[in-house]
Write a structure and sequence with these properties.
Blueprint lengths: L20 E8 L2 E6 L21 E4 L2 E2 L2 E8 L2 E6 L9 E5 L16 E5 L14 E3 L24 E3 H14 L28 H13 L4 E10 L4 E10 L2 E10 L2
């Protein structure tokens, strides 16, 4: 009389069902979980027919061996087989077999000795980030550190700026960079040279407005730009930029102190 497939009802102490494979399922792209009727022999990774020996197992897809590397048992009669090669996607059938697996008393596994399982949902590597972006390094003092410091993100990389903040950063850099500051960029291609505490007269507003608009058009992705330049009585130059970029409209305001 059998006591079922529990530990006390199999092997030399009982007359339970013989050892065989019941089912299998992919746990990841390189791991398949196998369900057996009960625990096989699992004493050594080198023992012939031992459940811990990778050579006892075979995992194939369309006749191609996926090369088992290691085996771990995480519950009675349940193990995970790790492979060198990845499984195909969930539409493909794979086979795991253990034709030489033995019971604790050395009796060879009975049929069925194999089980089929599907692969996993295909995981595609993320493509390049869409749209224009740059690393975030605000030009003003922030609580996270000095001005211009790169900021870490919660994912472990660096924070990025996109959209309005992206163009605001690049145009602010253009307007405040002295022409010729970058040796690899021709002097007239980058930089307007707006300087803090620089000399500026009210009569310069029209020419300054035109120069800023021309500089904005040099930024890749900018398709339209308009600028309102106002010299306030307090000596602050207020710039209101309205930019149309290939990623959408960008409105930004900058205030630069002048003498």
């Amino acid at each position: 009389m059998s006591f079922g497939t529990e530990p006390w009802g199999v092997g030399p102490w009982g007359s339970g069902a013989p050892l065989s494979l019941v089912a299998a399922r992919a746990r990841s792209t390189h791991c398949v979980e196998v369900l057996l009727t009960h625990d096989p022999r699992r004493r050594s990774v080198l023992g012939a027919g031992d459940g811990l020996n990778p050579r006892t197992w075979s995992v194939t897809h369309d006749g191609n061996e996926l090369t088992p590397l290691s085996v771990e048992f995480f519950a009675p009669g349940q193990c995970r087989v790790f492979t060198l090669h990845a499984f195909e996607d969930w539409t493909e059938l794979h086979t795991v077999s253990a034709n030489s697996l033995v019971e604790p008393n050395g009796v060879l596994i009975a049929a069925p000795r194999s089980a089929t399982f599907r692969g996993v949902v295909t995981v595609r590597s993320p493509g390049p980030l869409s749209g224009r972006y740059d690393l975030a390094n605000p030009p003003t003092i922030a609580t996270l550190g000095p001005a211009g410091t790169l900021q870490a993100s919660s994912a472990g990389g660096y924070q990025q700026v996109r959209g309005a903040e992206y163009y605001k950063k690049l145009i602010f850099r253009r307007l405040t960079t002295i022409p010729g500051s970058y040796f690899h960029i021709p002097r007239g291609d980058y930089g307007l040279g707006l300087q803090i505490k620089g000399l500026l007269r009210a009569s310069d507003m029209v020419a300054l407005k035109v120069a800023i608009e021309q500089e904005c058009f040099k930024e890749p992705g900018v398709t339209a730009a308009s600028v309102e330049a106002t010299l306030l009585a307090t000596g602050v130059l207020k710039l209101v930029l309205k930019i149309k970029a290939d990623t959408g409209d960008v409105n930004t305001s900058m205030e630069i102190e002048r003498q």
